[in-house]
Design goal:
This protein is α/β, with parallel strands linked by helices and 310 residues long. 32% of the residues lie in helices and 16% in strands. The protein is built from 9 helices and 12 strands. The radius of gyration is 21 Å and the shape is elongated. The structure holds NADP nicotinamide-adenine-dinucleotide phosphate. The site of NADP nicotinamide-adenine-dinucleotide phosphate (NAP) has 31 residues, from helix 5 and strand 7.
Length: 310
């Protein structure tokens, strides 16, 4: 039985080597060289994969995302019926995201855009002291990534709030859920961080009506998915001053087209879906464990709830 890998050509061999390092007995095939379709027992995929193709493998018993998100595997036609889907929860992936969040929270909190502009103008001018204890951070999504970012921000002294689908209790984090909870957290977030999965419920969440609930001059960080934002509404909020700035890592479509106004907007700091990139050697042990679990008829670790969409 074989494992099919499907990702960008540039990382395919890293993934193969990392999996073989954990279990040299694995037979790994690199898409599109799948060989006999009936050999494939597990598919480990990133966004490029054509999901219809997965129905060609009659003995497939596990589908693994190469990242924390699974929206790319749940889009139509969805995973083959009956095949469990696992995602990654990985310490280094989580750390990478927390670093990106800290970088951008501190960038805005410490008035870095203003000081850089002053440096360009050779202007010696002290701005009002940033007050960490009064800069309220709201995190949409309090899962593996949002929860870790919340802990790191709390450790720096920021007041942290979080919003999740179900009621949640994280020490020190004021937690909200549901529609009322969303309005409440938005109304108090001086810096809003989106770390939600992209599902039918969360698509388009950051629209004009929701952005209008933020305190005037709030900042937006989105490193979840481009589909969470209505791009035109984010641009309008930046232009009106409702948003003082945005750090954006994810877009729809990706790559962001060269003519898109986000590229040149003076209030936007942009990264190319690079907030946290999976390190194959870090993720390989759990992927191999899931292959072993699938062979033993066990549910995989980090099993995706297909009904909830994440
Ligand atoms: P996770 O552990 O599944 O956490 C998701 C969180 O979102 C949970 O707290 C969940 O609530 C909440 N949530 C889901 N649907 C909701 C809804 N309708 N209303 C309110 N809250 C909702 O996911 P994760 O590992 O933290 O990853 C989050 C996302 O980050 C991924 O899906 C991916 O899209 C993105 N990501 C981006 C990058 C990048 O480089 N840009 C890298 C990795 C991941 P409950 O706690 O109640 O379940």
């Amino acid at each position: 039985m074989a494992v099919l890998l499907s990702t960008k050509a540039s990382t395919m061999e890293d993934w193969r080597d990392a999996l073989l390092e954990v279990d040299p007995s694995l037979e790994i095939r690199l898409f599109p060289e799948a060989g006999d379709p009936s050999d494939i027992e597990a598919a480990v995929c990133w966004t490029a994969h054509d999901l219809g193709e997965l129905r060609r493998y009659p003995n497939l018993r596990l589908l693994v995302s190469m990242g924390a998100g699974v929206d790319h595997l749940l889009r139509p036609p969805g995973p083959p019926p009956g095949v469990p889907v696992a995602r990654l929860v990985d310490e280094r992936l989580t750390q990478g995201m927390t670093e990106w969040v800290l970088l951008n929270v501190l960038r805005f909190h410490r008035q870095d855009p203003e000081y850089r502009a002053q440096q360009s103008a050779r202007l010696w001018h002290e701005l009002p002291a940033p007050d960490t204890a009064r800069r309220r951070i709201g995190i949409l999504g309090l899962g593996a990534l949002g929860g870790d970012a919340a802990r790191a921000l709390l450790a720096l002294g920021f007041p942290v709030m979080g919003w999740s689908r179900r009621p949640k209790s994280l020490p020190g984090v004021e937690s909200f859920h549901g529609d009322d909870g969303l309005a409440a957290i938005l109304g108090r977030s001086d810096i809003l961080v989106c770390l939600l999965p992209l599902t039918p419920e969360t698509r388009g969440l950051l629209d004009a009506a929701r952005l209008a609930l933020l305190p005037a001059g709030a900042y937006l960080l989105n490193s979840a998915r481009g589909g969470h934002m209505v791009a035109a509404d984010v641009l309008a909020a930046l232009d009106s001053g409702r948003l003082a700035g945005a750090a954006l890592d994810v877009f729809e479509p990706e790559p962001l087209p060269p003519e898109h106004p986000f590229w040149t907007h003076p209030k936007v700091v942009l990264t190319p879906h690079a907030a946290s990139i999976t390190i194959p050697r870090s993720a390989a042990p759990q992927v191999v464990e899931n292959i072993h679990r699938a062979r033993a008829g066990l549910a995989p670790l980090n099993l995706v709830d297909l009904a909830a969409g994440y």
